[in-house]
Write a structure and sequence with these properties.
Elements: H1 6-16, H2 19-30, H3 33-36, E1 42-43, H4 44-51, H5 55-67, E2 71-73, E3 78-81, H6 97-100, H7 106-112, H8 115-121, H9 125-130, H10 134-139, H11 142-155, H12 157-166, E4 174-178, H13 184-192, E5 197-202, H14 210-217, E6 223-227, E7 240-244, H15 252-265, E8 271-279, H16 289-301, E9 307-308, H17 309-318, E10 321-326, E11 335-342
Parallel strand pairs: 4-5, 4-7, 5-6, 7-8, 8-9
Antiparallel strand pairs: 1-3, 2-3, 8-11, 10-11
Helix pairs in contact: 4-5, 12-13, 13-14
């Protein structure tokens, strides 16, 4: 390959200007264009009237969406939604819209504009953009916080059902969900296993939607909601402490604090079940792009990262736990289960 290789140049152009289709998708979702086109074709004039937008500019957006296959232009300038664009509808099972919306927030988008700052300093760019952590940023805006909670519920749906069906809950009576937000994961586990009881642990803002979620799932009578700080302590009495998509948000020291609190809360037969993406030791072009995208997003927005199996084992050891098994993938985003038990102490007892 030479520097003048046209195929290589074209590939780099498509990558470098990827922010353009990203913002096109954002605009389409924010204006609810897929919802408006769900049942019938509409012209840009009709869409502009319904969305309160500038018709000539909207037409340019629609043509852009057509170029990436999300809509299709027909006779008379009317546009229809394609199957590729259907997952952007807000009213379909498996909609991706909730997952996308918080990440198109102005503060998040601006933070990615300072990506190089994070590479140079190792600090999340969001802190210099918003003046606080990404969680402070979400909490300060109720609408954005609701979008983030909805995104977390959607992103965990596939993993929740897969975990409920594939993990062996034999001998488990009480599941403690650490940092479980609205309780989407715990609701699925309790709904699938009628003999389980659950305890949900998260911040007051994090658990605010949990009562409604548990009631809707019909498991409210078997679940306790604890608003608290998992860096300080977690409830005792659990047989299984589930930590999904939490540790990757924090640095090693904070992760050890969370895990150590779980170790202190459980008895010698208790277990910890981490549900996270496990990073490969070596990345190459065949690596799932979700993993590297997630890892870099964590660099910009948090002090955490995606970790290898060896790195998880180290965290567990520091917390007085030992890694006892890594499960098959759950869901479709590369999540795996990492099981741990109390480490042996002097004298051979656990």
């Amino acid at each position: 390959m030479t520097i003048s290789d046209p195929m290589a140049a074209a590939h780099l152009y498509r990558l470098a200007f990827g922010f353009i289709p990203a913002q096109m998708i954002h605009a389409a979702a924010r204006l609810r264009l897929p919802d408006l086109l769900a049942e019938r074709s509409l012209t840009t004039g009709e869409l502009a009237d319904l969305t309160g937008t500038h018709a000539p500019s909207l037409r340019r957006l629609m043509r852009g969406l057509a170029s990436i296959g999300l809509v299709e232009e027909g006779e008379g300038g009317a546009f229809r939604l394609t199957p590729a664009g259907a997952p952007l509808r807000s009213d379909v099972p498996g909609s991706v819209r909730p997952m996308l919306m918080p990440y198109f927030d102005e503060g998040i988008w601006a933070s990615w504009g300072r990506f190089l700052d994070s590479v140079r300093t190792g600090r999340p760019a969001v802190e210099s953009v918003t003046g606080g952590s990404v969680f402070d940023h979400f909490a300060a805006d109720p609408e954005l916080a609701a979008e983030f909670n909805a995104a977390m519920a959607v992103s965990g749906g596939a993993e929740a059902w897969s975990l409920a069906q594939s993990f062996d809950f034999t001998g488990v009576r009480t599941v403690v969900d650490i940092g479980g937000g609205s309780g989407a994961l715990l609701a699925v586990l309790l709904g699938h296993h009628r003999g389980l009881r659950g305890i949900l642990v998260d911040t007051p803002a994090g658990v605010s939607d949990a009562p409604a979620a548990f009631a809707a799932a019909g498991v409210a009578d078997r679940c306790e909601i604890t608003a608290g700080d998992f860096f300080t302590s977690v409830p005792g009495g659990g047989d299984l402490y589930v930590i999904k998509s939490v540790l990757h948000d924090w640095d090693d020291e904070e992760c050890v604090r969370i895990l150590r609190n779980c170790r202190r809360a459980m008895d010698s037969t208790g277990r910890v079940l981490i549900v996270e993406v496990i990073a490969p030791a070596v990345v190459n072009p065949t690596t799932d792009p979700f993993l590297t995208a997630s890892d870099l997003n964590l660099l910009v927005l948090t002090r955490g990262r995606e970790r290898t199996q060896e790195e998880f084992a180290h965290l567990l050891k520091e917390a007085g736990l030992r890694l006892t098994g890594v499960g098959d993938p759950v869901g479709f985003n590369g999540y795996r289960t990492i099981e741990a038990r109390p480490a042996a102490v002097e004298g051979g007892a656990a």
